[in-house]
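Worked problem 6 (solution included).
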Amino acid sequence: YPPTFLLVPRLLSWVAPDFWTFRHVWFVLNILVVFGAALAVALRLDAATGTKSVLLTPFVVAGPAIIVSFQMGNVQLAVVALSMLAMLLFERRSYAAGGLVLAYVTAAKLYPGVFVLYLILRREWRAVAWAAAFGSALVALSIAVFGWPPFAAFLEHMPKLMSGEAFPAFRN
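Solution. The predicted structure is:
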């Protein structure tokens, strides 16, 4: 993960300083984020479709792949959910909130950056500006909290991530 991802785990470590408590808090937080984003998107839909979405969400989340993702502590589902939430916030003209959420998930996982590209292509400059401003602030905050070494290590490791060399198990 890019060093900016570490900001949320650092905050959580204040309330959950030991590993097992942290794992429990992380698990619950991930579930709340996924269900919360699903509910927020369902509320945006018409009444009939939204009701069906809410009622079917537990069945989707109960799927084996989703459960394993939660159990492993993988943040991917939360990042997808937060990306949806950021776009919903932009649609509702909550630019600052949407910018903060999109900036964090983009700076934490990189692939949500495709939504920034989407906003650029749609010429939604206000949303892009908020995301860029918060993205810059999160990078600055990460440097202030963790220093340069995690960024240097990430930049050194990134070519291996891009080529797949960092994942030898997947080659097999």
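Discussion: The mean pLDDT is 89.
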